[in-house]
Each structure stands twice: as structure tokens, then as C-alpha cells.
TrEMBL record:
Biological source species: Zymoseptoria tritici (strain CBS 115943 / IPO323) (Speckled leaf blotch fungus)
UniProt xrefs under SUPFAM superfamilies: TPR-like
Coiled coil: none
Source species, domain of life: Eukaryota
Gene3D superfamilies in UniProt: Ankyrin repeat-containing domain, Tetratricopeptide repeat domain
Keywords associated with the record: TPR repeat
Protein name (record): Uncharacterized protein
TPR repeat coordinates: 53-86
Length: 620
């Protein structure tokens, strides 16, 4: 078998990362960069220092876009130190990213120092130097002459790149960047023009920036829309400004663009949008709102950037309350003022909860569980057991996480079989000594195996076929589950006492509202921690949104890591009993979100988000 060409794999991941960067698919870009960094850290490849430096620089820029500035600083400083023979131009590029970061952190003195060094390093005649000088001169200050120089350099760079004698790799790397730098320069120039009361010219320049947005990063486009609206607003054209600032669902709005990278400057701009009555209650092409982005950027440290994020969240909350109060009054005109206030506050709390859920999803799936799955490809350890331990440790470490996710529970198969019917909410064991669902024990006191080390866990994916209940009066689903598990035990050579079941009705608290929310939000994590999934398929199964999400998650896991299994249980044709055929399922079908049905309409954004996360969970 031919040994892998790790340098070639590295280049492939880096190319994919740059493609995803061009499309503003930041999560996919991060995934590719993590793969490339893993190769640098674990495999023998040529030019390791330079390659590692390249990845660390890109990751620093990416974490800046996520609003996670402290982590971005670590990556960029790591990039500066990664290669002892770093060229002046490469150092200039890293300093440019670091300077932008310091500016977002409100550390303007250090930002100016870094930009000055970047400009001095970039004073060379090569094309790459011209590109870095273009960025540096616009970064260093907001003086009109410097910004105009940046615009001129960006335009000249585009003309040079359009010539036929430019290297294709350089053209690909800098063509869109040069257009982006020109756009940002035009937007910044508008601030100088407004300060000089030259409002008409500010409108003209921002309008010019708006015409250059084809194929641009949605965040850059959103910020250009802000600056154009700002110029219109200052020129006395408030109605036109509001038209530019307001967004429809599916587009990154100016408010979202500002919230992606918190700073005192961006907080001031967001305040202007709120005062203008701009609707913040919209979602972009990723299914995120302005509140989601602000919460994603927040951390627990008392940094200036975090204070800016908190301020932006407060601004959004005030705006949301106004919007939601107006909606409530329109929909329920007979409601008392006290009832209206309570309804609005409950909705705001729910928005915050969902924003926090998304924040933790991204952190847990992409930065904790996915690396564990990647390691399983190289080592022969029991991946699923390790995932259970990783998840339990993740919750143990932070009370905030336990307020979002629930522990992993399961129903011992022997108890399920003895019960004689589908569990009811808060069902207890047959002898009533304990709750039917048992919390998975992953502790290893003194290095010994945990109490549940040998549990083979089955995730049941099925439709609720009763009236707001999982089963009908004939116990159809319960009987199918028994039939499926017995077939699995026979085919896999399992022992019944070591089989556990994950059932939503039993493993998610159906009575306490907050516990139920935690259980529902933990469902994707339960899929990861089960050895197999059994789908009780029927004619309506694939039309149910939650069933589709469960299947997609398992398909991605199987396709990427080969550590899980999915089985399908289909009723035998013409039979009225629950007897069916249990088969290993290998298909990988795409199910469009628009064709799926949900019991709760508000679940659709969550379904869409999880579908996207499932793609990122998988990997090459």
C-alpha cells in the first residue's frame, strides 16, 4: 500500500481552506485549517516551520472573524515565532492581521506600532510587497491622504493582477483581496468626508463601494451597506438609509456584520442602527442573527473586547424588546401590559438560550468531539467510550455548559423489555426503585473501568405516532423496538444485559420545561455517544425533520470515521404484526430542509443549524 503524501494532503487542505475563505464559509475553513495543522504537528513533511506558520496566521485571522480575539492573538504570535527564518514580507502579512486585531481590542497604541512596522517591512517593489503596503497604509490611520493612497494602491494592484504575466497563484490570492481593500478604503474614506461635512462626496464614495460587492465576503458587503447608509443618514436622507440598513432573511445584515467583530467603534455604529429602529430580528444565510454573533464573540474574561460584546448584546436586547412588544400588541391586542411584558421577556430569554446553545454546539462539536473522532482514525481505542468520557468531562468542567446540555441517559434493555409498553414521561423501573432512564456512568475511580463501560448503546430514531405520544394504542413502536433489538442482539452476538437504549421519551425530561430544553438540545450529542442507530422506517419517516437530522448526523459519522453503525427496521410487507427486517443501512441521501415537517414551527432554525453542523462534523 502506497504511503500517503502528507505534503500533498497539506496543500490540498490549505487550498480547500482558501476556497472556503473566498466563499466566507468560515466553519468549513476552520475545519480544513485544523486538518492542515494536525499534519504539521504529527507528520514528517518538508518546510514544516513555514507551513505551520502559514496555517497559524490563517487561524489567527479566522478567530478574529469569530470575535474570539484572545485566541486569535495566541495564534498570530505563534505564527510570528513558528519560523526562525521568516521573510520580511511574511512577517509584514502577520503583523497586518495582528494590527487589525489590536484595533478591534481597542489597543490603538499597539495597533499603530504594529502597522508602522508592517509598512516599513513591506517597502519593496515585488507584487506581494505592493499588496502588503496597500493593506498597511490603510490600516495605519484614518487620515484622508493615507486612505486615498490605499484606494489608489488597491486599484493599481487590481490592474496589475489583471495583466496576463502575473502568476496564477498570486492572482488568485490577491485579486479579491485587492478589491476588498479598495472597498474598505472607500468606506473608511466616507468617515473622513462626513467629518469634513462633505456629505454628497461620502454618499458617492460609499455608493462606489457598493458597486464592487459581487462575489465579496458577506460580512464586507454588510459593512459596506452600513457605511453607505451612514453616509445617507448624515446627508439627511434617513428614509433611504433605513432602506439600506434593513435586511431580509437569508442575507448578512449590517448589524450582523458589526456583531461578528465587537469593538467600541462597532458598538457605536450598532447604537445608531438601534436608534434608527432597524429590525435586528432577522437571520443570515447561515441561520444566525445579530444576537447569535454577539453571543458567539462573548467570553468570560474582563477584556475591553468582551465589554464591547456585552454592550452590543444590551443594544440588541433593547431593540428586540421593542420589536417583540410591537408584534405581541399586533397579534394579541387584548393582552394586559403585564402579560405583554412577561411574554416579551420570556421570548428574549429564549433567544439568549438558543444563542448560547449555538455557541456551545460549535465549541463542543468542532473543538472537542471532532478531534477525538479524528484521533480514532489513527489509534485503535474504543472511540464511542472515549466520546462519552469527553462529553462528561466537558459538562463537569463548567456549570454554564450544564445549563445548556443534559447528561447522557439510557434505558437498560432488560428494564425496557420487562416494562411491556413504551415508557411514559417520568416512568420508573418496574419495582419503582428508580427512574427508568439511568445516567451513563463514565467515571474511572483508581483507573478501573466505569460501571457502564460495557454498555452497548442503541439510539432509536422514530416517529411519534400517537396523539402527542410516541406510540399508539396497539404498542406498535414498542413492539417494533423489541423486534429490532432482538434481531440486533442475534446478528451482533450481544448479551441483553449489556444493551442500553436511548429513547427521547425516557431520556429527555418531559415534565420540567428547562430540563426538557436541555435534553432536546443534547440530542445530537446523544447520537455521537451511541454505538448504533436503529431507524424505525415507514412511509413518513424521512419527512420528519428530527428524524432527518438524526440520520444525517449518523451518516456523516459513519462516512468519515467508520466507528458507528446505522440499521433500518422495516415492517414485512402485508404483515399486521411488528415483525420486520433489520438491515445495515449505508445510503447517504440529501434531504432538503424545505420538505421536512416539524411539530413545533420554531424548531426549523435549529434543524437548519444542526444540518450545517453535521456536515462540519464529518471530515476527510
Amino acid at each position: 500500500m502506497e504511503a500517503p503524501n502528507w505534503a500533498q494532503k497539506f496543500d490540498s487542505f490549505l487550498d480547500q481552506a482558501e476556497d472556503n475563505e473566498d466563499k466566507a464559509e468560515w466553519q468549513s475553513c476552520l475545519k480544513d485549517l485544523q486538518e492542515a495543522l494536525n499534519i504539521c504537528d504529527t507528520r514528517p513533511i518538508p518546510d514544516k516551520e513555514q507551513r505551520r506558520q502559514q496555517v497559524l496566521m490563517k487561524m489567527g485571522g479566522l478567530y478574529r472573524r469569530f470575535g474570539r480575539y484572545d485566541e486569535a492573538v495566541v495564534y498570530l504570535n505563534g505564527a510570528l515565532d513558528a519560523d526562525s527564518h521568516v521573510t520580511a514580507l511574511k512577517r509584514a502579512a502577520i503583523l497586518g492581521e495582528l494590527g487589525v486585531l489590536y484595533r478591534h481590542k481597542n489597543d490603538f497604541f499597539r495597533a499603530r506600532e504594529v502597522f508602522s512596522e508592517q509598512y516599513l517591512l513591506a517597502k519593496e517593489t515585488a507584487l506581494v510587497a505592493e499588496a502588503e503596503m496597500c493593506r498597511a497604509v490603510g490600516n495605519e490611520a484614518y487620515a484622508t491622504s493615507q486612505i486615498e493612497e490605499r484606494i489608489a494602491r488597491a486599484q493599481a494592484l487590481q490592474d496589475r493582477l489583471a495583466g496576463g504575466d502575473t502568476d496564477e497563484k498570486l492572482r488568485r490570492r490577491y485579486a479579491q483581496a485587492a478589491r476588498r481593500w479598495e472597498t474598505i478604503g472607500l468606506d473608511r474614506l466616507s468617515l473622513c468626508l462626513i467629518a469634513a461635512h462633505n456629505f454628497d462626496e461620502a454618499v458617492k464614495r460609499t455608493q462606489e463601494a457598493m458597486t464592487k460587492q459581487k462575489g465579496m465576503d458577506p460580512t464586507v458587503t454588510a459593512l459596506s451597506r452600513f457605511f453607505h447608509g451612514n453616509a445617507l443618514w448624515c446627508a439627511g436622507q434617513q428614509q433611504a438609509a433605513e432602506g439600506v440598513w434593513n435586511s431580509t432573511t437569508g442575507v448578512c445584515s449590517p448589524a450582523m456584520g458589526l456583531c461578528k467583530e465587537p469593538s467600541s467603534e462597532h458598538a457605536d455604529y450598532l447604537e445608531l442602527l438601534a436608534d434608527a429602529g432597524i429590525d435586528f430580528d432577522v437571520y443570515d444565510e447561515q441561520g444566525f442573527s445579530a444576537l447569535d454573533y454577539a453571543v458567539l464573540s462573548r467570553n468570560q474574561t474582563a477584556t475591553a473586547a468582551n465589554k464591547d460584546a456585552e454592550r452590543m448584546i444590551d443594544i440588541i436586547d433593547r431593540s428586540l424588546r421593542k420589536t417583540l412588544a410591537a408584534d405581541h400588541e399586533r397579534q394579541m391586542p387584548q393582552s394586559t401590559p403585564q402579560d405583554a411584558i412577561q411574554a416579551v421577556e420570556a421570548e428574549v430569554r429564549q433567544r439568549h438560550r438558543q444563542a448560547n446553545v449555538r455557541r456551545y454546539y460549535r465549541n463542543l462539536l468542532q473543538e472537542h468531539l471532532r478531534p477525538q473522532l479524528k484521533n480514532s482514525l489513527q489509534y485503535s481505542h474504543d472511540c464511542v467510550r472515549m466520546l462519552r468520557q469527553q462529553y462528561a468531562s466537558y459538562l463537569d468542567a463548567d456549570i454554564g455548559r450544564r445549563q445548556v446540555f443534559d447528561w447522557l441517559y439510557y434505558v437498560p434493555y432488560d428494564d425496557f423489555r420487562t416494562l411491556g409498553h413504551m415508557p411514559q414521561p417520568a416512568e420508573r423501573s418496574v419495582d419503582s426503585s428508580r427512574r427508568l432512564a439511568t445516567r451513563m456512568d463514565t467515571s474511572r475511580a483508581g483507573g478501573t473501568s466505569s460501571a457502564d463501560e460495557d454498555i452497548f448503546l442503541v439510539f432509536f430514531s422514530y416517529r411519534w405516532i400517537g396523539h402527542n405520544m410516541p406510540d399508539d394504542g396497539a404498542n406498535t413502536q414498542y413492539s417494533r423496538m423489541l423486534n429490532a433489538v432482538e434481531a440486533l442482539i442475534f446478528q451482533r452476538g450481544l448479551t441483553a444485559e449489556h444493551v442500553g437504549l436511548w429513547l427521547d421519551i425516557a431520556c429527555i425530561d418531559q415534565e420540567d420545561v428547562e430540563s426538557r430544553e436541555r435534553g432536546i438540545d443534547s440530542l445530537p450529542m446523544a447520537v455521537l455517544q451511541c454505538d448504533v442507530m436503529i431507524s424505525l422506517e415507514d412511509d413518513e419517516y424521512y419527512n420528519r425533520a428530527w428524524c432527518a437530522v438524526e440520520v444525517r448526523l449518523m451518516q456523516e459519522l459513519i462516512g468519515a470515521y467508520h466507528k458507528h453503525e446505522r440499521w433500518s427496521h422495516r415492517l414485512l410487507s402485508g404483515e399486521s404484526t411488528a415483525d420486520g427486517l433489520l438491515e445495515r443501512s449505508q445510503e447517504h441521501s440529501e434531504v432538503p430542509i424545505t420538505s421536512l415537517s416539524v411539530t413545533v414551527k420554531g424548531d426549523l432554525p435549529k434543524i437548519d443549524f444542526l444540518m450545517r453542523q453535521s456536515k462540519l462534523l464529518g471530515g476527510p
